[in-house]
Amino acid sequence: MTIPQQVLEKMWANDHFSQWLDLKIDAITEGVCRLHFIVRKEMLNGHQTVHGGILFSAADSAFAFACNSHGRLAVGLEVSISYTKSAQQGEILTVEAQEVYLGNKTSVYDVKIRNEQAEVVAVFKGTAYRTSKNVLG
């Protein structure tokens, strides 16, 4: 098992919120995490589209898995999100975090959420602070 897979397994075991979202991990490698989820009724806002907080949370989870995938404990330092298209109940959304910079103390990630037609639903940018601790102990 690779370091990214070991890190994901350890983090996932304690990440009850990502489990509640029912995120499904498609791929994890150093600096990259791809996952997907189905928009459920309880994820909808008053306009009957996916709540922005759900999109943010799914992107934040992919970001967390990607920025910790090197084995060093990393935490969010600054994040932002832009919503570009609505999504409806029953849609499958794919979330992909991609490392764009890896430094000794910080790293930067672009996260895109796409619908089944590959249209961008949201764009998330995250900067992580990399501690000196090892995720795996």
Topology, pairings included?
Blueprint: H1 3-14, H2 16-21, E1 24-29, E2 32-38, H3 52-68, E3 72-83, E4 92-102, E5 106-114, E6 120-134
Antiparallel strand pairs: 1-2, 2-4, 3-6, 4-5, 5-6
Structure description:
The protein is of the alpha+beta class and 137 residues long. The chain has a single domain, classed as Thiol Ester Dehydrase, Chain A, CATH 3.10.129. The chain is built from 3 helices and 6 strands; from the N terminus they run H-H-E-E-H-E-E-E-E. Strands 1-2-4-5-6-3 form a 6-stranded antiparallel β-sheet, covered by helices on one side. The longest helix is centred in the middle third of the chain and has 17 residues, at 52-68. The mean pLDDT is 98.
- The CATH class, by name, is Alpha Beta
Low-confidence stretches: none
Give the strand tally.
6
Shape: globular
CATH architecture: Roll
CATH fold annotation: Thiol Ester Dehydrase, Chain A
| Radius of gyration, CA atoms, in whole angstroms | 14 Å
